[in-house]
């Protein structure tokens, strides 16, 4: 299982997202000192979950990082995200 699949599994298990996109941007950072030292990749995710209802942006990020757990120490060097409720995602013009 590759890193993106591990991330997907963790997020699906913890957040039951209705929409989840994960992009591995590691190649764009090839040779980046921090990534080389940690051995981890650079990832971007769009996560849409009902579990974000009533949560601030910080609380949403905390839920995501809690779900990723030890992957943040071992396999992920950088992780950026957009975390939406289903209504917010729809209001942005998404299906």
From TrEMBL:
Native source organism of the sequence: Methylocaldum marinum
Name of the protein described by the UniProt record: Regulator of penicillin binding proteins and beta lactamase transcription
Source domain of life: Bacteria
Swiss-Prot/TrEMBL GO biological process terms: iron-sulfur cluster assembly
SUPFAM superfamilies reported for this sequence: BolA-like (SSF82657)
Similarity annotation: Belongs to the BolA/IbaG family.
